[in-house]
């Protein structure tokens, strides 16, 4: 089975983005270059990524991907975008739009991953869907020294300490990089 990893930056109070889906708070944090270097190493082992539609639409807009498909950074990776809507495709990219139960998607994810790993990009509820289905092995968070008070949640599920093992702690600039191993719950 491929290893399924949730890797994301987060605020100290557990948000991926603010209420308007802005990441402006993230890009001003010192040490992003060091965090980026660790991320490049991580990306080398990834064969599949999965994201929800808000995250995809953020990328489309932020990178102007419809007009500049060459800016799609993940051309060597099979990408699944979960949505009930019809969304623009990035020309030349292997982006597969799917909807519904992530367990039904799982065989296709396994086939695409081969001997590589799966990166769940977010958002938090989509990661929760994979955790609910028993398909989440690792959580890697880069915690930024920021609190927002509200926004898009990191992982809106109850997963207690009997299922999470702190594997490593590192510092990259002003980010605290925490890696947790996830043990399946009784439901998954
Ligand atoms: N800090 C970081 O590094 C980081 C990382 C990741 C994301 N982000 C940001 O965090 C925010 C996350 O947004 P979000 O919480 O709204 O999450 P999201 O997962 O990006 O988008 C949620 C939407 O995806 C669709 N969806 C999810 N699961 C589905 C399923 N099983 N079947 C069909 N459709 C499904 C639904 O929309 P529709 O059906 O209406 O399309 C749902 O409303 C974004 O702004 C993103 O840019 C930040």
Strand fraction:
25-35%
Major sheet characteristics: 8 strands, mixed
**Ligands:** NADP nicotinamide-adenine-dinucleotide phosphate
What are the segments in which pLDDT stays under 50 over at least 5 consecutive residues?
Answer: none
Verbal overview:
The protein has helices at 24-27, 32-44, 53-62, 102-113, 124-132; strands at residues 4-11, 15-17, 46-52, 78-82, 95-98, 117-122, 138-144, 152-153, 164-172, 175-182. With 188 residues, it is α/β, with parallel strands linked by helices. The protein has an 8-stranded mixed β-sheet, with helices on both faces. The mean pLDDT is 95. It binds NADP nicotinamide-adenine-dinucleotide phosphate (NAP). NADP nicotinamide-adenine-dinucleotide phosphate is lined by residues 8-9, 16-17, 21, 23, 26, 51-55, 58, 82-85, 99-100, 102, 121-126, 129, 152.
Secondary structure elements and pairings:
Blueprint lengths: L3 E8 L3 E3 L6 H4 L4 H13 L1 E7 H10 L15 E5 L12 E4 L3 H12 L3 E6 L1 H9 L5 E7 L7 E2 L10 E9 L2 E8 L6
Parallel strand pairs: 1-6, 1-7, 3-4, 3-6, 4-5
Antiparallel strand pairs: 2-8, 7-10, 9-10
The chain binds NADP nicotinamide-adenine-dinucleotide phosphate.
NADP nicotinamide-adenine-dinucleotide phosphate (NAP) binds next to strand 1, strand 2, strand 3, helix 3 and strand 6.
